Amino acid sequence: MLVLTRKTKESIKIGDDIEITVLSVSGDQVKIGIKAPKSVEIHRTEIYNEIQKENETASTTVTNLMEKLKNWNINS
Questions:
Q1: What is the largest CA-CA distance in the chain?
Q2: Strand pairing of 11-14 and 18-26?
Q3: How does residue 8 score in pLDDT terms, banded at 50, 70 and 90?
Q4: Is the pLDDT of residue 7 over 90?
Q5: pLDDT confidence band for 76 (50 / 70 / 90)
Q6: What range defines the domain where residue 67 resides?
Q7: What is the DSSP string of 17-51?
Q8: What share of the chain in percent tops pLDDT 70?
Q9: Residue 70 domain-assigned?
Q10: SS3 13
Q11: Of 37, 41, 45, 31, which Cα lies nearest the Cα of 15?
Q12: How far apart, in whole angstroms, are the C-alpha atoms of residue 32 and residue 20?
């Protein structure tokens, strides 16, 4: 992990097209702004983890359904 120190209104660049700017600091909260192409998905970690969990559940459901359909065709 790269650790950087930035002050309010200072930013960092990630590659050529992503910029993260410190907007404000208040107590233990830091507000950041992120400029990135629309094609780059940006999520809070807890939201990202929920999306991954839902995708895994959906994938398992489809796999189970496909297996049931396969067995149904064989037994019909």
A1: 69
A2: antiparallel
A3: very high
A4: yes
A5: low
A6: 43-76
A7: TEEEEEEEEETTEEEEEEE--TTS----HHHHHHH
A8: 92
A9: yes
A10: strand
A11: 37
A12: 7
Question: 35-58: per-residue pLDDT in tens?
Answer: 999 999 999 999 999 999 988 887
The tokens describing 22, both together, are 């410190």
pLDDT recorded at residue 37: 97
| 8 Å CB contact between 31 and 24 | yes
Taking the model in full, what pTM does it have?
0.68
Q: Are residues 27 and 11 in the same domain?
A: yes
- Cβ–Cβ under 8 Å, residues 16 and 35: no
Same domain? For 30 and 47 the reply is: no
Q: Kindly state whether residues 32 and 47 are assigned to the same domain.
A: no
- Please report whether residue 51 resides in a domain: yes
